């Protein structure tokens, strides 16, 4: 959240004894040019972070710099995309270079400006999807690392986030290896699918020798819910409001508790300000669901389908009173919301921040639609958060209608204060010192 | 030289810098004429090897036909950008089942991959004779058409990128030769064909952009070194399933970067 004033002659910090490699020098030139682009964006965007960005910025830029990465606690815009990558960089040096390029591209893409051009005999450096000048469209680009990045390739093992691990199958999962895991996860969220696609193609174009797409899934949210952010809960593709019980993102102290890894404790120091991210591609068996009586649907979720109210309440945001219904007469004991959040003092430690999208991708050979939830959540503690919640949900009646098929566990990196730092720098430096 | 990925920044600097000086058309006469000779030799070999291959098919010698399948195709794969100019022949000679609505059942599914399917998947040559005859006729037709072809500079130069795009889109996944798993023959042939073009242009490229030229050479060297690990003693290749995941990933970066860089050759040489 520091100054976004452009800094055309910025250099990335490096140790004085370390000679700049040709590629590093190249990157500096790039930074200078991107800085130039930021000047153009800066004409329209507020020059200082004190100005509230969403209200005052006519180009709808979400600030890129800050203690935490964007794309986690800011309201989710209409279009989301998760891209998992294999890292092709052979050593830690190239990995650090990759982080720098990604940081440079994220900073440009999220703040907007004039695209790069070339002599007509060359392939254009920009895909042109958004025209000659990019309006950010609330784009956030969020970088997370997977457990496999901490294997023996880069010597990062000693500084791995304490509970980062490969996702393992829960009993109801039907995981497809082609849709699981990844060295890196990039989450792109913006006002439209084209903005995300433009950003993805830009990232791919700039990292040919360093990154390879492993899987990609895009998603969407109802426009009405996006426009009324915080007031209208989006519905999932089963027709139920999804996110009513989410912790309030405006409550910074609560976010510190639920979402962000704190300094101290069992985590390596470099992780402070980051967050564990879980992505799950959960197919909804919608034809079967649509042939299920309403009363059963509502008992499976524990909510009124129309209003979103818990079955023991009248309004969406009424807090279910489980102690008054110990036998589950009104709100079944195995209802989704009751298992997910039993609302006891002990289960407060299991809160997670969900930020899911809906997805739709064709049909199978039986003529049934392949659509569902691109589940996405953030938490300070992976074991206490998603893994514990999902274990409580194992065997829930909803399982008959949903099949998780892919996704993975990742760690969303801490934010960076300004353009003197790059995403992942604290990780690289911690590994070098380990 | 270890290939170093150039950052976006340098690419931008190159793009933004002075437009490349146009190459004198006279300087291209030599490389183009040499390339035509190379292509002619490859196609002559294709015709000769296809004859042996289809003879074995028609003789019902499945073992011999299988052994000749991979080594025969390389002479098509190395000159694919020119062969593809004749789309009717390319479809007849080299289309895959996926290119046809009815897949393997499609009567339009002919050529190398139809015979591959018959030999490696069905293990028979019972219905193969007509496909063998047609393939022979088609490659001879191709030989005649290529002999009469005048090669435009941008076709030759763009061909290098086209060959690597082939590798990047289908060879690297092992989906080209799905019944025989001889993909590494095709992979190497595509790379060889691209490398030949770059070699012929090397003096011009060195003059126009030595850094880019060096990076391209480095990536070719990396790819060749990885593929060499899978050479068999008879000069052929192991089947694609022997390619380790680590090596597949190690090929991905240089191949993708080659695709990006070879796409810049016409611009680098100032060819409109």
Question: What's the gist of this structure?
Answer:
The complex is a heterodimer of chains A (434) and B (272). Chain A is of the alpha+beta class. Chain A has eleven helices and eleven strands.
Structure, explained:
The complex is a heterodimer of chains A (434) and B (272). By secondary structure, chain A is of the alpha+beta class. Chain A is 26% helix and 18% strand. Chain A contains 11 helices and 11 strands. In chain A, strands 1, 4, 5, 6, 7, 8, 9, 10 and 11 form a 9-stranded antiparallel β-sheet that branches. In chain A, helix 1 (22-44) runs parallel beside helix 3. Chain A starts with 21 loop residues before the first helix and ends with a helix. Chain B is mostly helical. In chain B, helix 8 (153-169) crosses helix 9. Chain A binds chain B through residues 21-23, 26-34, 86, 88-90, 94, 97, 100-101, 104-105, 116-119, 121-123, 125, 205-210, 212, and chain B through 3-13, 15-16, 19-20, 219, 249-250, 252-254, 256-257, 259-260, 263-264, 266-268, 270-272.
Share of β-strand residues of chain B: under 5%
Distance between the termini of chain A: 30 Å
Roughly what percent helix of chain A?
Answer: 25-40%
- Approximate shape of chain A: globular
Shape of chain B: globular
The total of beta strands of chain A comes to: 11
Strand count, sense and closure of the main sheet of chain B? none
Specify Rg of chain B, calculated over alpha carbons: 19 Å
Query: Helix and strand succession of chain A?
Result: HHEHEEEEHEHHEHHHEEEHEH
SS field, number of helical segments of chain B: 12
User: What ranges of chain A have pLDDT less than 50 throughout 5 or more consecutive residues?
Assistant: 1-58
The tally of beta strands of chain B, per DSSP, is 0
Largest interface: A-B, 37 and 33 residues
- Give the averaged pLDDT of chain A, no decimals: 89
Mean pLDDT of chain B equals 91
Strand % of chain A is 15-25%
């Amino acid at each position: 959240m520091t100054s976004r004033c452009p800094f055309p002659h910025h250099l990335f910090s490096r140790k004085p004894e370390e000679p700049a490699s040709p590629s590093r020098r190249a990157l500096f030139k790039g930074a200078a040019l991107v800085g130039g682009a930021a000047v153009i964006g800066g004409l329209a965007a507020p020059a200082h972070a004190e100005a509230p960005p969403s209200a005052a910025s006519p180009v709808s830029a979400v600030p890129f710099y800050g203690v935490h990465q964007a794309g986690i606690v800011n309201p989710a815009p209409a279009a989301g995309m998760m891209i998992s990558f294999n890292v092709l960089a052979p050593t830690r040096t190239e990995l650090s270079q990759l982080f720098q390029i990604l940081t440079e591209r994220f900073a440009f893409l999220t703040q907007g400006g004039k695209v790069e051009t070339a002599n007509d005999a060359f392939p254009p450096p920009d895909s042109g999807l958004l025209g000659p000048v990019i309006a950010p469209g609330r784009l956030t680009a969020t970088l997370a690392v997977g457990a496999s990045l901490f294997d023996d390739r880069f010597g990062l093992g000693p500084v791995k986030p304490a509970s980062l691990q490969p996702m393992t199958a829960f009993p109801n999962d039907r995981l497809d290896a082609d849709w699981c895991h990844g060295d890196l996860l990039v989450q792109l969220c913006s006002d439209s699918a084209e903005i995300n696609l433009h950003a993805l193609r830009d990232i791919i174009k700039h990292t040919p020798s360093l990154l390879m797409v492993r899987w990609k899934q895009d998603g969407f949210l109802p426009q009405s819910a996006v426009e009324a952010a915080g007031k209208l809960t989006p519905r999932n593709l089963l027709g139920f409001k999804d996110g009513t019980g989410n912790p309030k993102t405006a409550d910074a102290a609560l976010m510190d508790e639920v979402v962000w890894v704190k300094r101290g404790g069992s985590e390596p120091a470099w992780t402070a300000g980051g967050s564990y991210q879980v992505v799950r591609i959960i197919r909804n068996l919608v034809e079967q669901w649509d042939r299920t009586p309403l009363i059963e649907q509502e008992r499976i979720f524990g909510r009124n389908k129309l209003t979103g109210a818990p079955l023991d309440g009248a309004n969406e945001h009424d807090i279910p009173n489980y102690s008054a219904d110990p036998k589950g007469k009104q709100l079944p004991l195995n209802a989704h919301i009751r298992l997910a959040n039993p609302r006891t003092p002990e289960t407060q430690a299991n809160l997670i921040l969900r930020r899911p999208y809906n997805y739709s991708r064709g049909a199978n050979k039986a003529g049934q639609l392949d659509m569902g939830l691109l589940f996405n959540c953030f938490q300070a503690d992976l074991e206490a958060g998603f893994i514990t919640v999902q274990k409580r949900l194992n065997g829930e009646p909803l399982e008959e209608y949903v099949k998780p098929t892919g996704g993975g566990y990742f760690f969303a990196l801490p934010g960076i204060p300004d353009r003197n730092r790059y995403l992942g720098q604290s990780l690289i430096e911690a590994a070098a010192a380990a | 030289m270890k290939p170093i990925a150039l950052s976006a920044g340098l690419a931008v600097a190159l793009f933004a810098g002075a437009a490349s000086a146009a190459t004198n058309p006279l300087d291209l006469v030599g490389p183009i004429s040499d390339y035509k000779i190379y292509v002619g030799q490859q196609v002559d070999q294709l015709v000769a090897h296809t004859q042996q291959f289809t003879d074995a098919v028609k003789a019902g010698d499945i073992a011999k036909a299988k052994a000749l399948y991979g080594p025969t195709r390389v002479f098509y794969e190395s000159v694919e950008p020119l062969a593809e100019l004749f789309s009717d022949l390319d479809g007849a000679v080299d289309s895959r089942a996926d290119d046809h609505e009815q897949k393997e059942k499609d009567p339009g599914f002919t050529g190398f991959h139809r015979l591959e399917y018959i030999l490696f998947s069905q293990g028979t040559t019972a219905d193969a004779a007509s496909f063998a005859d047609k393939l022979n006729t088609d490659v001879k037709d191709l030989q005649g058409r290529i002999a009469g072809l005048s090669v435009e500079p941008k076709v030759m130069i763009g061909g290098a990128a086209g060959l690597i795009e082939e590798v990047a889109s289908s060879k690297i996944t092992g989906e080209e030769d799905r019944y025989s798993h001889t993909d590494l023959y095709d992979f190497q042939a595509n790379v060889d064909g691209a490398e030949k073009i770059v070699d012929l242009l090397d003096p011009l490229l060195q003059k126009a952009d030595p850094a880019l030229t060096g990076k391209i050479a480095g990536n070719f060297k990396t790819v060749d070194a990885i593929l060499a690990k899978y050479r068999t003693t008879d000069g052929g290749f192991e089947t694609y399933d022997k390619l380790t995941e680590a090596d597949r990933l190690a090929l991905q970066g240089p191949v993708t970067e080659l695709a990006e860089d070879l796409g810049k050759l016409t611009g680098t040489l100032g060819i409109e």
